[in-house]
Amino acid sequence: MGIINVLPDHTANQIAAGEVVQRPASVVKELLENSVDAKATKVTLYIKEGGRTLIQISDNGLGMSDVDARLCWERHATSKLNVIDDLFALNTFGFRGEALASIAAVAQVEMKTKRNEDEVGTHIVIEGSQVKMQDVIAIPTGTSIAVKNLFFNVPARRNFLKSDTSEAAHIIEEFMRVALANPHISFAMHNNESEVFHVLVGTLKQRIIALFGDKYNQNILSVNESTQIANIYGFVGKPDFAKRTRGEQYFFVNQRFVKNSYLNHAVVGAYQDLMPTDNFPFYVLFIDVDPKTIDINVHPTKTEIKFRDEKNLYTILKAVVKRTLGQHTITPQFDFETPSEIQHFNPNFFQRDEIPRPPEIKVDPNFNPFNRDSYGNVPSSTREQSNQRHWQSLYNSDADLKGDATHSTIQPSLGDDLDIEVSIQKEFMQILKRYVLTSIKSGLMLIDQKAAHERILYERYLGQMEKNGGVSQQLLFPVIIQFNPADLVLFQELFHEFQSLGFVLDDFGNNQIVVNGLPAEAKNANPQQLLEGMLEFYKTYKTDVKMDKRESVARGLSKRLGIQYGETLNREEMRNLVDELFACTMPYQTSDGKSIVKMLSGEDLERMF
Predict the structure, then answer these.
(1) Which of 567, 565, 460 lies closest to 520 in space, CA to CA?
(2) Which domains does the chain carry?
(3) Residue 410: which of 396, 421, 399 has the closest Cα?
(4) What is the pTM of this model?
(5) Residue 427 pLDDT class (50, 70, 90 cuts)
Protein backbone atom coordinates (compact mmCIF):
# COMPACT_ATOMS: atom_id res chain seq x y z
CA MET A 1 0.00 0.00 0.00
CA GLY A 2 1.38 3.44 -0.93
CA ILE A 3 1.97 6.33 1.44
CA ILE A 4 0.20 8.97 -0.69
CA ASN A 5 -3.48 9.45 0.15
CA VAL A 6 -6.10 11.65 -1.47
CA LEU A 7 -7.58 13.91 1.18
CA PRO A 8 -11.33 13.85 1.70
CA ASP A 9 -13.29 16.91 0.62
CA HIS A 10 -13.93 18.03 4.20
CA THR A 11 -10.20 18.14 5.01
CA ALA A 12 -9.33 19.75 1.66
CA ASN A 13 -11.92 22.46 2.28
CA GLN A 14 -10.38 23.33 5.63
CA ILE A 15 -6.90 23.54 4.09
CA ALA A 16 -8.26 25.88 1.41
CA ALA A 17 -9.99 27.86 4.13
CA GLY A 18 -6.64 28.42 5.79
CA GLU A 19 -5.45 30.18 2.62
CA VAL A 20 -8.56 32.22 1.90
CA VAL A 21 -10.16 32.87 5.31
CA GLN A 22 -7.42 34.23 7.52
CA ARG A 23 -9.69 36.42 9.64
CA PRO A 24 -13.23 37.92 9.50
CA ALA A 25 -11.99 40.66 7.15
CA SER A 26 -11.13 37.95 4.61
CA VAL A 27 -14.77 36.84 4.56
CA VAL A 28 -15.95 40.44 4.14
CA LYS A 29 -13.58 40.98 1.22
CA GLU A 30 -14.76 37.89 -0.66
CA LEU A 31 -18.46 38.56 -0.13
CA LEU A 32 -18.25 42.25 -1.02
CA GLU A 33 -16.41 41.44 -4.24
CA ASN A 34 -19.08 38.87 -5.09
CA SER A 35 -21.75 41.55 -4.66
CA VAL A 36 -19.86 43.88 -6.98
CA ASP A 37 -19.50 41.12 -9.57
CA ALA A 38 -23.26 40.50 -9.30
CA LYS A 39 -23.81 44.10 -10.56
CA ALA A 40 -25.40 45.26 -7.35
CA THR A 41 -26.15 48.97 -6.95
CA LYS A 42 -26.71 48.81 -3.19
CA VAL A 43 -24.68 46.75 -0.68
CA THR A 44 -25.12 46.62 3.10
CA LEU A 45 -22.71 45.04 5.59
CA TYR A 46 -23.57 44.05 9.18
CA ILE A 47 -21.00 42.74 11.66
CA LYS A 48 -21.09 41.81 15.34
CA GLU A 49 -18.22 41.34 17.77
CA GLY A 50 -15.58 42.04 15.16
CA GLY A 51 -17.14 39.53 12.76
CA ARG A 52 -16.73 36.58 15.11
CA THR A 53 -20.42 35.94 15.64
CA LEU A 54 -21.95 37.55 12.53
CA ILE A 55 -20.99 38.84 9.12
CA GLN A 56 -23.97 39.56 6.90
CA ILE A 57 -23.88 41.12 3.45
CA SER A 58 -27.02 41.94 1.49
CA ASP A 59 -27.19 43.26 -2.07
CA ASN A 60 -29.69 43.90 -4.84
CA GLY A 61 -27.61 42.18 -7.50
CA LEU A 62 -28.55 39.59 -10.10
CA GLY A 63 -29.12 36.77 -7.64
CA MET A 64 -28.85 33.04 -8.45
CA SER A 65 -31.09 30.20 -9.50
CA ASP A 66 -31.67 27.29 -7.16
CA VAL A 67 -29.10 25.18 -9.05
CA ASP A 68 -26.41 27.90 -8.99
CA ALA A 69 -27.16 28.60 -5.34
CA ARG A 70 -26.26 25.03 -4.53
CA LEU A 71 -23.25 24.73 -6.85
CA CYS A 72 -21.55 27.94 -5.73
CA TRP A 73 -20.58 26.26 -2.44
CA GLU A 74 -18.63 23.51 -4.19
CA ARG A 75 -14.86 23.72 -4.58
CA HIS A 76 -13.54 25.12 -7.86
CA ALA A 77 -17.00 26.28 -8.84
CA THR A 78 -16.95 29.68 -10.55
CA SER A 79 -18.83 31.77 -13.05
CA LYS A 80 -15.67 33.57 -14.23
CA LEU A 81 -13.95 30.86 -16.26
CA ASN A 82 -15.03 28.66 -19.14
CA VAL A 83 -11.74 27.89 -20.89
CA ILE A 84 -8.09 28.09 -19.82
CA ASP A 85 -7.51 31.25 -21.87
CA ASP A 86 -9.88 33.11 -19.54
CA LEU A 87 -7.17 32.97 -16.88
CA PHE A 88 -5.16 35.52 -18.83
CA ALA A 89 -7.95 38.03 -19.38
CA LEU A 90 -9.57 38.43 -15.99
CA ASN A 91 -11.70 41.51 -15.52
CA THR A 92 -13.56 40.37 -12.41
CA PHE A 93 -12.49 39.88 -8.82
CA GLY A 94 -12.47 36.15 -8.40
CA PHE A 95 -11.78 33.03 -10.39
CA ARG A 96 -10.51 30.26 -8.10
CA GLY A 97 -13.95 29.23 -6.96
CA GLU A 98 -12.77 28.34 -3.44
CA ALA A 99 -13.94 31.40 -1.52
CA LEU A 100 -17.48 30.33 -0.66
CA ALA A 101 -16.46 26.70 -0.16
CA SER A 102 -13.69 27.82 2.22
CA ILE A 103 -16.06 30.05 4.19
CA ALA A 104 -18.63 27.28 4.50
CA ALA A 105 -15.94 24.90 5.78
CA VAL A 106 -15.23 26.97 8.90
CA ALA A 107 -18.54 28.68 9.67
CA GLN A 108 -22.30 28.35 9.84
CA VAL A 109 -23.65 29.93 6.66
CA GLU A 110 -27.13 30.97 5.63
CA MET A 111 -27.84 32.25 2.12
CA LYS A 112 -30.97 33.72 0.61
CA THR A 113 -30.95 34.57 -3.10
CA LYS A 114 -33.39 35.29 -5.91
CA ARG A 115 -33.19 36.30 -9.55
CA ASN A 116 -35.49 38.94 -11.00
CA GLU A 117 -37.16 36.46 -13.37
CA ASP A 118 -37.92 33.94 -10.59
CA GLU A 119 -41.08 34.07 -8.49
CA VAL A 120 -39.43 32.69 -5.38
CA GLY A 121 -35.89 32.56 -4.10
CA THR A 122 -33.65 29.89 -2.61
CA HIS A 123 -32.79 29.47 1.06
CA ILE A 124 -29.73 27.35 1.95
CA VAL A 125 -28.15 26.59 5.34
CA ILE A 126 -24.63 25.08 5.45
CA GLU A 127 -22.57 24.15 8.49
CA GLY A 128 -18.98 22.95 8.21
CA SER A 129 -19.37 22.22 4.46
CA GLN A 130 -22.50 20.12 5.12
CA VAL A 131 -25.77 21.30 3.58
CA LYS A 132 -28.33 21.23 6.37
CA MET A 133 -31.29 22.67 4.52
CA GLN A 134 -32.40 23.95 1.11
CA ASP A 135 -35.86 25.40 0.54
CA VAL A 136 -37.75 28.10 -1.31
CA ILE A 137 -38.34 31.54 0.21
CA ALA A 138 -40.09 34.79 -0.74
CA ILE A 139 -37.48 37.59 -0.85
CA PRO A 140 -36.64 40.58 -3.07
CA THR A 141 -34.21 40.23 -5.96
CA GLY A 142 -30.62 39.92 -4.82
CA THR A 143 -28.53 37.90 -2.39
CA SER A 144 -28.08 37.90 1.37
CA ILE A 145 -25.35 35.80 3.00
CA ALA A 146 -24.94 35.52 6.78
CA VAL A 147 -21.73 33.97 8.13
CA LYS A 148 -22.15 33.02 11.80
CA ASN A 149 -19.68 31.78 14.42
CA LEU A 150 -16.59 31.91 12.26
CA PHE A 151 -14.03 29.15 13.03
CA PHE A 152 -16.52 27.39 15.30
CA ASN A 153 -14.97 24.05 14.28
CA VAL A 154 -11.36 25.29 14.22
CA PRO A 155 -10.81 26.57 17.78
CA ALA A 156 -7.07 27.03 17.28
CA ARG A 157 -7.71 29.50 14.46
CA ARG A 158 -10.39 31.29 16.48
CA ASN A 159 -8.04 31.72 19.43
CA PHE A 160 -5.54 33.55 17.22
CA LEU A 161 -8.01 36.30 16.35
CA LYS A 162 -7.27 39.70 17.86
CA SER A 163 -9.65 41.82 19.91
CA ASP A 164 -13.06 42.75 18.52
CA THR A 165 -11.94 46.34 17.88
CA SER A 166 -8.83 45.20 16.04
CA GLU A 167 -10.79 42.78 13.85
CA ALA A 168 -13.41 45.45 13.20
CA ALA A 169 -10.65 47.80 12.07
CA HIS A 170 -9.50 45.24 9.50
CA ILE A 171 -13.07 44.83 8.28
CA ILE A 172 -13.50 48.60 7.94
CA GLU A 173 -10.29 48.73 5.88
CA GLU A 174 -11.57 46.04 3.49
CA PHE A 175 -14.93 47.80 3.25
CA MET A 176 -13.26 51.10 2.37
CA ARG A 177 -11.14 49.50 -0.35
CA VAL A 178 -14.18 48.06 -2.11
CA ALA A 179 -16.17 51.27 -1.62
CA LEU A 180 -13.38 53.42 -3.08
CA ALA A 181 -13.10 51.22 -6.15
CA ASN A 182 -16.84 51.41 -6.84
CA PRO A 183 -18.23 54.94 -6.38
CA HIS A 184 -21.13 53.95 -8.64
CA ILE A 185 -22.45 51.64 -5.91
CA SER A 186 -24.12 52.71 -2.66
CA PHE A 187 -22.57 51.11 0.43
CA ALA A 188 -23.59 50.98 4.09
CA MET A 189 -21.91 49.37 7.09
CA HIS A 190 -23.18 48.66 10.61
CA ASN A 191 -21.00 47.53 13.52
CA ASN A 192 -22.85 46.18 16.56
CA GLU A 193 -26.08 47.96 15.57
CA SER A 194 -24.27 51.29 15.02
CA GLU A 195 -23.99 52.77 11.54
CA VAL A 196 -20.36 53.36 10.56
CA PHE A 197 -20.81 54.30 6.89
CA HIS A 198 -23.62 55.19 4.55
CA VAL A 199 -22.15 56.43 1.27
CA LEU A 200 -24.29 57.24 -1.75
CA VAL A 201 -23.54 56.94 -5.45
CA GLY A 202 -21.29 59.75 -6.67
CA THR A 203 -17.93 60.68 -8.15
CA LEU A 204 -14.62 59.36 -6.88
CA LYS A 205 -13.90 62.63 -5.08
CA GLN A 206 -17.31 62.55 -3.40
CA ARG A 207 -16.64 58.98 -2.32
CA ILE A 208 -13.27 59.97 -0.82
CA ILE A 209 -14.87 62.83 1.13
CA ALA A 210 -17.70 60.58 2.32
CA LEU A 211 -15.26 57.96 3.61
CA PHE A 212 -12.47 60.13 5.02
CA GLY A 213 -14.09 63.45 5.94
CA ASP A 214 -14.76 66.97 4.70
CA LYS A 215 -11.15 68.10 5.24
CA TYR A 216 -10.09 66.11 2.21
CA ASN A 217 -12.14 68.31 -0.10
CA GLN A 218 -9.54 71.09 -0.13
CA ASN A 219 -6.45 68.93 0.32
CA ILE A 220 -6.50 66.44 -2.56
CA LEU A 221 -5.36 66.97 -6.15
CA SER A 222 -6.67 65.29 -9.26
CA VAL A 223 -4.41 62.96 -11.29
CA ASN A 224 -5.23 61.96 -14.86
CA GLU A 225 -2.86 60.64 -17.53
CA SER A 226 -3.22 58.22 -20.45
CA THR A 227 -0.26 56.41 -22.00
CA GLN A 228 0.27 53.36 -24.16
CA ILE A 229 1.33 51.37 -21.09
CA ALA A 230 -1.40 52.41 -18.65
CA ASN A 231 -4.13 54.90 -17.81
CA ILE A 232 -3.53 56.51 -14.43
CA TYR A 233 -6.16 58.55 -12.60
CA GLY A 234 -7.29 59.35 -9.08
CA PHE A 235 -6.28 61.77 -6.35
CA VAL A 236 -3.17 62.56 -4.30
CA GLY A 237 -2.92 64.63 -1.15
CA LYS A 238 -1.05 67.89 -0.81
CA PRO A 239 2.36 67.54 0.89
CA ASP A 240 1.33 69.62 3.90
CA PHE A 241 -1.63 67.26 4.35
CA ALA A 242 0.63 64.21 4.82
CA LYS A 243 0.25 62.34 8.09
CA ARG A 244 2.40 60.24 10.35
CA THR A 245 0.10 57.28 9.97
CA ARG A 246 0.33 55.09 6.93
CA GLY A 247 -2.75 53.35 5.62
CA GLU A 248 -4.33 56.06 3.49
CA GLN A 249 -2.50 54.83 0.40
CA TYR A 250 -4.58 52.92 -2.12
CA PHE A 251 -3.60 51.41 -5.46
CA PHE A 252 -6.24 49.87 -7.70
CA VAL A 253 -5.20 47.96 -10.79
CA ASN A 254 -8.15 47.30 -13.09
CA GLN A 255 -10.46 48.25 -10.19
CA ARG A 256 -8.80 45.73 -7.84
CA PHE A 257 -7.02 46.87 -4.69
CA VAL A 258 -3.36 45.79 -4.71
CA LYS A 259 -0.28 46.24 -2.57
CA ASN A 260 2.93 47.11 -4.38
CA SER A 261 5.90 48.59 -2.52
CA TYR A 262 7.67 49.35 -5.80
CA LEU A 263 4.87 51.60 -7.06
CA ASN A 264 4.46 53.11 -3.59
CA HIS A 265 8.12 54.11 -3.76
CA ALA A 266 7.40 55.90 -7.03
CA VAL A 267 4.62 57.99 -5.49
CA VAL A 268 6.61 58.81 -2.36
CA GLY A 269 9.56 59.75 -4.58
CA ALA A 270 7.42 62.40 -6.25
CA TYR A 271 7.06 64.07 -2.83
CA GLN A 272 10.81 64.19 -2.26
CA ASP A 273 11.86 67.35 -0.37
CA LEU A 274 8.20 68.39 -0.04
CA MET A 275 7.41 66.66 3.26
CA PRO A 276 9.28 65.12 6.23
CA THR A 277 10.69 61.64 5.67
CA ASP A 278 8.58 60.12 8.44
CA ASN A 279 5.29 61.34 6.93
CA PHE A 280 3.07 59.46 4.50
CA PRO A 281 1.12 61.10 1.67
CA PHE A 282 -2.51 60.36 0.90
CA TYR A 283 -3.32 58.85 -2.47
CA VAL A 284 -6.07 56.90 -4.20
CA LEU A 285 -4.73 55.94 -7.60
CA PHE A 286 -6.24 53.75 -10.29
CA ILE A 287 -4.09 52.06 -12.91
CA ASP A 288 -5.84 50.48 -15.88
CA VAL A 289 -3.67 48.12 -17.93
CA ASP A 290 -4.18 45.26 -20.34
CA PRO A 291 -5.10 42.19 -18.24
CA LYS A 292 -2.61 40.15 -20.27
CA THR A 293 0.28 42.25 -18.92
CA ILE A 294 -0.32 41.44 -15.24
CA ASP A 295 -0.41 38.38 -13.01
CA ILE A 296 -2.66 38.58 -9.96
CA ASN A 297 -2.18 34.98 -8.86
CA VAL A 298 0.98 35.54 -6.84
CA HIS A 299 -0.81 35.50 -3.48
CA PRO A 300 -3.91 33.68 -2.19
CA THR A 301 -5.57 36.95 -1.15
CA LYS A 302 -4.97 38.41 -4.62
CA THR A 303 -3.64 41.69 -3.22
CA GLU A 304 -0.16 41.31 -4.71
CA ILE A 305 0.43 41.67 -8.41
CA LYS A 306 3.18 41.40 -11.01
CA PHE A 307 3.55 43.70 -14.01
CA ARG A 308 5.21 42.81 -17.26
CA ASP A 309 6.61 46.34 -17.71
CA GLU A 310 7.10 47.42 -14.11
CA LYS A 311 10.07 49.76 -14.60
CA ASN A 312 8.37 51.91 -17.22
CA LEU A 313 5.20 52.02 -15.14
CA TYR A 314 7.30 53.20 -12.17
CA THR A 315 8.77 56.04 -14.22
CA ILE A 316 5.40 57.11 -15.61
CA LEU A 317 3.68 57.03 -12.23
CA LYS A 318 6.37 59.12 -10.54
CA ALA A 319 6.35 61.68 -13.34
CA VAL A 320 2.55 61.95 -13.36
CA VAL A 321 2.31 62.55 -9.61
CA LYS A 322 5.19 65.02 -9.67
CA ARG A 323 3.59 66.95 -12.51
CA THR A 324 0.29 67.05 -10.65
CA LEU A 325 1.97 68.57 -7.61
CA GLY A 326 3.69 71.12 -9.85
CA GLN A 327 0.58 72.09 -11.79
CA HIS A 328 -1.20 72.95 -8.58
CA THR A 329 1.68 75.23 -7.53
CA ILE A 330 2.81 72.82 -4.84
CA THR A 331 6.30 72.91 -6.31
CA PRO A 332 7.81 76.01 -7.95
CA GLN A 333 7.49 76.10 -11.71
CA PHE A 334 9.74 78.24 -13.90
CA ASP A 335 8.98 78.66 -17.58
CA PHE A 336 10.95 81.58 -18.96
CA GLU A 337 9.51 81.13 -22.44
CA THR A 338 5.94 81.81 -21.32
CA PRO A 339 4.96 85.45 -21.94
CA SER A 340 2.57 85.39 -19.00
CA GLU A 341 5.55 85.11 -16.67
CA ILE A 342 6.71 88.53 -17.87
CA GLN A 343 3.23 90.05 -17.95
CA HIS A 344 2.65 89.12 -14.32
CA PHE A 345 6.01 90.44 -13.10
CA ASN A 346 5.54 92.50 -9.95
CA PRO A 347 7.92 95.47 -9.75
CA ASN A 348 7.42 95.54 -5.98
CA PHE A 349 8.54 91.93 -5.63
CA PHE A 350 11.86 92.92 -4.04
CA GLN A 351 11.77 94.37 -0.57
CA ARG A 352 13.72 97.51 0.18
CA ASP A 353 16.65 95.67 1.70
CA GLU A 354 16.67 93.17 -1.17
CA ILE A 355 17.24 95.68 -4.01
CA PRO A 356 20.39 94.68 -5.90
CA ARG A 357 23.40 96.80 -4.98
CA PRO A 358 26.71 97.26 -6.81
CA PRO A 359 29.49 95.01 -5.51
CA GLU A 360 31.71 96.36 -2.72
CA ILE A 361 35.46 95.96 -2.53
CA LYS A 362 36.91 95.51 0.94
CA VAL A 363 40.63 96.15 1.61
CA ASP A 364 42.68 95.05 4.61
CA PRO A 365 44.50 98.27 5.68
CA ASN A 366 46.99 96.26 7.79
CA PHE A 367 48.17 94.07 4.92
CA ASN A 368 51.87 94.63 4.06
CA PRO A 369 53.18 92.61 1.11
CA PHE A 370 56.76 93.38 2.16
CA ASN A 371 56.35 91.91 5.65
CA ARG A 372 57.93 88.54 4.76
CA ASP A 373 61.19 86.81 5.57
CA SER A 374 64.04 86.31 3.15
CA TYR A 375 62.37 83.19 1.75
CA GLY A 376 59.10 84.98 1.03
CA ASN A 377 57.24 83.28 3.91
CA VAL A 378 55.03 84.86 6.51
CA PRO A 379 56.90 85.30 9.83
CA SER A 380 56.52 82.50 12.37
CA SER A 381 54.65 84.64 14.88
CA THR A 382 51.95 85.31 12.27
CA ARG A 383 51.71 81.59 11.41
CA GLU A 384 51.35 80.68 15.09
CA GLN A 385 48.49 83.15 15.51
CA SER A 386 46.81 81.74 12.39
CA ASN A 387 47.18 78.14 13.62
CA GLN A 388 45.86 79.11 17.02
CA ARG A 389 42.76 80.60 15.43
CA HIS A 390 42.38 77.44 13.31
CA TRP A 391 42.48 75.07 16.29
CA GLN A 392 40.14 77.33 18.22
CA SER A 393 37.59 77.11 15.40
CA LEU A 394 37.77 73.31 15.48
CA TYR A 395 36.97 73.22 19.19
CA ASN A 396 34.08 75.61 18.65
CA SER A 397 32.62 73.36 15.93
CA ASP A 398 29.37 71.56 16.60
CA ALA A 399 31.03 68.34 15.49
CA ASP A 400 33.60 68.33 18.31
CA LEU A 401 33.68 67.74 22.03
CA LYS A 402 31.71 69.90 24.36
CA GLY A 403 32.80 69.40 27.95
CA ASP A 404 31.05 70.35 31.17
CA ALA A 405 32.33 69.65 34.63
CA THR A 406 29.74 68.64 37.16
CA HIS A 407 29.45 66.94 40.51
CA SER A 408 27.78 63.54 40.51
CA THR A 409 27.07 61.06 43.22
CA ILE A 410 25.81 58.25 41.00
CA GLN A 411 27.14 54.77 41.48
CA PRO A 412 25.89 52.78 38.51
CA SER A 413 25.94 49.02 38.67
CA LEU A 414 26.26 47.40 35.25
CA GLY A 415 27.62 44.13 36.56
CA ASP A 416 30.45 43.04 38.81
CA ASP A 417 32.75 42.34 35.87
CA LEU A 418 32.68 45.90 34.53
CA ASP A 419 34.43 47.41 37.56
CA ILE A 420 32.75 50.81 37.29
CA GLU A 421 33.50 53.46 39.86
CA VAL A 422 32.26 57.01 39.38
CA SER A 423 34.19 59.56 41.35
CA ILE A 424 32.62 62.40 43.32
CA GLN A 425 33.67 65.02 40.79
CA LYS A 426 32.76 63.89 37.32
CA GLU A 427 33.21 65.53 33.96
CA PHE A 428 30.72 64.84 31.20
CA MET A 429 31.31 65.65 27.58
CA GLN A 430 28.83 65.67 24.72
CA ILE A 431 30.17 64.27 21.46
CA LEU A 432 28.64 65.01 18.05
CA LYS A 433 25.46 66.03 19.87
CA ARG A 434 24.68 62.30 20.10
CA TYR A 435 26.70 60.80 22.94
CA VAL A 436 27.60 61.63 26.53
CA LEU A 437 31.16 60.64 27.44
CA THR A 438 32.53 60.26 30.95
CA SER A 439 35.56 58.57 32.49
CA ILE A 440 35.33 55.64 34.86
CA LYS A 441 37.94 53.71 36.81
CA SER A 442 38.54 51.18 34.05
CA GLY A 443 38.42 53.60 31.10
CA LEU A 444 35.64 55.50 29.37
CA MET A 445 31.85 55.13 29.33
CA LEU A 446 29.87 56.28 26.29
CA ILE A 447 26.10 56.81 26.56
CA ASP A 448 23.68 57.24 23.66
CA GLN A 449 21.65 60.26 24.74
CA LYS A 450 18.57 59.43 22.64
CA ALA A 451 18.45 55.77 23.65
CA ALA A 452 19.06 56.63 27.30
CA HIS A 453 16.21 59.11 27.48
CA GLU A 454 13.84 56.72 25.68
CA ARG A 455 14.62 54.06 28.30
CA ILE A 456 13.95 56.51 31.12
CA LEU A 457 10.63 57.62 29.67
CA TYR A 458 9.58 54.07 28.76
CA GLU A 459 9.87 52.84 32.35
CA ARG A 460 8.23 56.01 33.66
CA TYR A 461 5.23 55.62 31.36
CA LEU A 462 4.79 51.94 32.20
CA GLY A 463 4.64 52.90 35.88
CA GLN A 464 2.11 55.66 35.19
CA MET A 465 -0.18 53.29 33.29
CA GLU A 466 -0.04 50.75 36.11
CA LYS A 467 -1.14 53.41 38.59
CA ASN A 468 -3.20 55.61 36.23
CA GLY A 469 -1.03 58.42 37.48
CA GLY A 470 -0.10 60.39 34.37
CA VAL A 471 0.22 64.15 34.90
CA SER A 472 -1.69 66.30 32.40
CA GLN A 473 -0.93 69.74 31.01
CA GLN A 474 -4.15 71.44 29.89
CA LEU A 475 -4.11 73.04 26.45
CA LEU A 476 -5.07 76.68 26.17
CA PHE A 477 -7.04 75.90 23.01
CA PRO A 478 -8.40 72.36 22.42
CA VAL A 479 -7.24 70.63 19.24
CA ILE A 480 -9.63 68.62 17.03
CA ILE A 481 -8.08 65.68 15.17
CA GLN A 482 -9.87 63.73 12.47
CA PHE A 483 -9.05 60.06 11.94
CA ASN A 484 -10.18 57.73 9.23
CA PRO A 485 -12.69 55.16 10.60
CA ALA A 486 -10.19 52.28 10.70
CA ASP A 487 -7.67 54.32 12.70
CA LEU A 488 -10.42 55.61 14.97
CA VAL A 489 -11.38 52.06 15.94
CA LEU A 490 -7.77 51.32 16.93
CA PHE A 491 -7.58 54.65 18.74
CA GLN A 492 -10.63 53.75 20.79
CA GLU A 493 -8.99 50.46 21.68
CA LEU A 494 -6.08 52.42 23.22
CA PHE A 495 -8.25 55.11 24.80
CA HIS A 496 -7.68 53.96 28.40
CA GLU A 497 -3.91 53.71 27.91
CA PHE A 498 -3.78 57.25 26.50
CA GLN A 499 -5.76 58.64 29.42
CA SER A 500 -3.58 56.90 32.00
CA LEU A 501 -0.55 58.67 30.50
CA GLY A 502 -2.09 62.12 30.93
CA PHE A 503 -3.91 62.68 27.65
CA VAL A 504 -7.27 64.43 28.14
CA LEU A 505 -9.45 63.29 25.24
CA ASP A 506 -13.11 63.45 24.23
CA ASP A 507 -15.07 61.99 21.35
CA PHE A 508 -16.22 64.84 19.10
CA GLY A 509 -18.21 62.64 16.71
CA ASN A 510 -17.82 62.29 12.94
CA ASN A 511 -14.52 60.41 13.37
CA GLN A 512 -13.01 63.29 15.34
CA ILE A 513 -11.24 63.44 18.71
CA VAL A 514 -10.84 66.56 20.87
CA VAL A 515 -7.52 66.90 22.70
CA ASN A 516 -7.89 69.06 25.82
CA GLY A 517 -4.64 68.09 27.52
CA LEU A 518 -1.32 66.36 26.97
CA PRO A 519 1.19 64.59 29.24
CA ALA A 520 3.36 67.07 31.10
CA GLU A 521 6.48 66.13 29.10
CA ALA A 522 4.58 66.77 25.86
CA LYS A 523 3.34 70.27 26.58
CA ASN A 524 5.24 71.71 23.59
CA ALA A 525 4.46 68.84 21.20
CA ASN A 526 2.07 68.97 18.26
CA PRO A 527 -0.98 66.98 19.48
CA GLN A 528 -1.92 65.65 16.04
CA GLN A 529 1.60 64.55 15.09
CA LEU A 530 2.10 63.02 18.53
CA LEU A 531 -1.08 60.91 18.48
CA GLU A 532 -0.71 59.93 14.83
CA GLY A 533 2.88 58.85 15.47
CA MET A 534 1.88 56.71 18.46
CA LEU A 535 -0.98 55.16 16.50
CA GLU A 536 1.35 54.35 13.60
CA PHE A 537 3.79 52.71 16.01
CA TYR A 538 0.98 50.61 17.46
CA LYS A 539 -0.21 49.55 13.99
CA THR A 540 3.32 48.57 13.04
CA TYR A 541 4.01 46.44 16.11
CA LYS A 542 0.56 45.26 17.23
CA THR A 543 1.18 41.88 15.63
CA ASP A 544 4.17 41.36 17.95
CA VAL A 545 2.91 38.81 20.46
CA LYS A 546 5.69 39.77 22.89
CA MET A 547 4.33 43.29 23.40
CA ASP A 548 0.96 44.19 24.91
CA LYS A 549 -0.95 47.43 24.43
CA ARG A 550 0.64 49.21 27.38
CA GLU A 551 4.16 48.41 26.25
CA SER A 552 3.38 49.52 22.71
CA VAL A 553 1.92 52.85 23.84
CA ALA A 554 4.79 53.47 26.28
CA ARG A 555 7.38 52.76 23.60
CA GLY A 556 5.59 54.90 21.03
CA LEU A 557 5.36 57.90 23.35
CA SER A 558 8.93 57.57 24.64
CA LYS A 559 10.31 57.55 21.10
CA ARG A 560 8.47 60.75 20.26
CA LEU A 561 9.20 62.70 23.43
CA GLY A 562 12.76 61.53 24.03
CA ILE A 563 15.85 63.66 23.50
CA GLN A 564 16.78 63.58 19.84
CA TYR A 565 20.16 63.52 18.17
CA GLY A 566 21.44 67.02 17.52
CA GLU A 567 20.13 68.50 20.78
CA THR A 568 22.78 70.23 22.88
CA LEU A 569 22.80 69.22 26.54
CA ASN A 570 24.14 71.44 29.27
CA ARG A 571 25.92 70.33 32.43
CA GLU A 572 22.76 69.88 34.47
CA GLU A 573 20.93 67.99 31.70
CA MET A 574 23.77 65.51 31.21
CA ARG A 575 24.02 64.89 34.96
CA ASN A 576 20.26 64.30 35.28
CA LEU A 577 20.24 62.04 32.24
CA VAL A 578 22.92 59.75 33.67
CA ASP A 579 21.39 59.81 37.17
CA GLU A 580 17.95 58.79 35.87
CA LEU A 581 19.36 56.19 33.48
CA PHE A 582 21.10 54.20 36.20
CA ALA A 583 18.01 54.44 38.38
CA CYS A 584 16.18 52.37 35.75
CA THR A 585 15.66 48.65 36.19
CA MET A 586 17.36 48.00 32.83
CA PRO A 587 19.88 50.75 32.00
CA TYR A 588 21.82 48.72 29.46
CA GLN A 589 19.29 48.40 26.63
CA THR A 590 16.37 50.21 25.10
CA SER A 591 12.89 48.68 25.08
CA ASP A 592 13.59 47.25 21.63
CA GLY A 593 16.92 45.70 22.59
CA LYS A 594 19.45 48.27 21.36
CA SER A 595 22.52 49.14 23.42
CA ILE A 596 22.55 52.32 25.48
CA VAL A 597 25.97 52.14 27.16
CA LYS A 598 29.35 51.20 25.69
CA MET A 599 32.61 50.75 27.62
CA LEU A 600 36.17 51.44 26.46
CA SER A 601 38.72 49.94 28.84
CA GLY A 602 42.28 51.14 29.22
CA GLU A 603 43.45 48.21 27.10
CA ASP A 604 41.01 49.19 24.34
CA LEU A 605 42.39 52.70 24.32
CA GLU A 606 45.99 51.46 24.22
CA ARG A 607 45.24 49.22 21.23
CA MET A 608 43.91 52.23 19.33
CA PHE A 609 47.35 53.80 19.48
Answers:
(1) 460
(2) 9-202 (3.30.565.10), 207-327 (3.30.230.10), 401-609 (3.30.1540.20)
(3) 421
(4) 0.70
(5) confident
